[in-house]
Write a structure and sequence with these properties.
By secondary structure, the protein is mainly β. The chain is built from 1 helix and 18 strands. It has a domain of 147 residues: Methylamine Dehydrogenase, Chain H (7 Propeller), CATH 2.130.10. The longest helix is centred in the N-terminal third of the chain and has 4 residues.
Length: 212
């Protein structure tokens, strides 16, 4: 007689109240009280990054139990995607609802690491909401995708403080996921998945049938 599988029970093992309590539920803008919504999340062994509807990035350091805040200058707009990377320096990329992309190079207390917070901007290419971000393992390349199907490649020189960006691919539907490894960018859209070979600048579709 076949045994009956026991039902799967989902359980929240560790409510992150220490994290949530460090993020305000409302902020004051002039005479208005604005509710803060949490809109994006990424984690690694060192940090928990949380994007918000007020354009503020909340970055929690897991080793020091400290919360830091980073924001964009100018218009207050919702953060739609965040992506952390730990390489020689700790980096976090942030995308917004209007298509702004920024990279924050974080301060480290370790010898030989970055001692001053720096920000790099991917300017003027995306015009719509950022839906995906992907790093190369060494932090020298960042790929960003938006809901109009544009994919932008940004080359970062952290030593010189330079970020050069260019449009590398346009898909007919929204980008939903990006992943990069060894000169190949995996691109998933609402309609299909392709492999983009960054050296040859060629595209190979995964599968033959479009998504419905």
């Amino acid at each position: 007689m076949a045994s009956v599988a026991s039902p799967v029970i989902f359980k929240e093992f560790c409510p992150l109240y220490y994290l949530l309590n460090a993020i305000p539920t409302k902020v004051q803008k002039g005479f208005r009280s604005i509710v803060v919504y949490l809109t994006a999340l990424d984690t690694n062994g060192d940090y928990i990054a949380v994007g918000s509807s007020i354009g503020m990035l909340y970055l929690y350091c897991r080793h020091l139990n400290q919360m830091k805040k980073y924001n964009f200058e100018g218009k207050c707009e919702s953060i739609t995607f965040v992506k952390l990377l730990s390489c020689f320096d700790d980096l976090v990329a942030v995308g917004t609802a209007s298509g702004r992309v920024a990279v924050f190079q974080l301060v480290s207390s370790l010898p030989g690491r970055n001692k001053q917070l720096r920000r790099f901007d991917v300017a003027g290419i995306h015009k719509s909401s950022i839906t995906a971000l992907a790093w190369s393992p060494n932090g020298m390349k960042l790929f960003s995708g938006d809901d109009k199907g544009k994919i932008v490649y940004s080359a970062l020189d952290l030593d010189q403080g330079i970020c050069n960006s260019s449009l590398v691919l346009e898909e007919p539907s929204s980008i939903v996921q990006l992943d990069y490894n060894q000169k190949v960018l995996l691109v998933s859209t609402l309609q299909r998945t392709v492999l983009f070979y960054t050296e040859e600048k060629s595209v190979k579709q995964v599968g033959t049938q479009p998504r419905k």
